[in-house]
Each structure stands twice: as C-alpha cells, then as structure tokens.
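Hi there,

I know you've been waiting on this one. I reran it after we fixed the sequence typo, so this is the corrected version. Both the input and the resulting structure follow.
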Amino acid sequence: MATAAPAAQEIPTVQAHWLTGSAAAIRPAPHRYTAEAGLRHGGLARIRVINRHFVVCASAETARHVLVRNHENYPRSYHRFNGALVVGMGLIFNEGEDWLLRRRLVWPAF
C-alpha cells in the first residue's frame, strides 16, 4: 500500500508595512534582516519589498534541499536577474547547465 506524500505547507509571510513591505526594515542590513526573518519563521519565510516578493531561507537543511538535492524542482524566478546585478551570475543565481558546471567547480572546496 502506497502512502500519500505530505501536503505542501504554506510559507509564513513576514508582516510588514501595507505599501512598502519590508523595505525600511531591510535597508540597514539586508543580510541580517533576511536571516532573522527566516529564523523567526522556522527557517523559511516570505517577505515583500515594495511590489516584489521573495522567499528567504535561513536553514542549512532547507537550502541543501532546494539548491542541491532537488534543484530541478525549484527554477529560479525572474528575480534572479535582479540579484545577479548585485553579486553576478554565480552559483546562487544561475541554473541549468551553467549552474551545474559552476557547482562542479566549487564542489572540491566543500
């Protein structure tokens, strides 16, 4: 007898300003704000900055699940181009064959 797959869970949303979202809170330290938001909500949270929605991950196991074990099931959105403008088209914002090539290049470091 096959067992049913667990139901998908809704990603918790960080409550923020009705118009600007988390823009004011994220501005002083984006890396700190996103990490704390993720940790407050069990490792994964949804935030909004102005009219853009993001999912932040503060759990190593969840990041490993999304970026390594099941990367085919999690395509990057058009937001990846915005992030790539800041940090370049590296391992985080790439996908497909180019991502796989870069992942294999950095694998020995881990």
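Quick highlight: Strands lie at 44-49, 52-57.

Best,
R. S.
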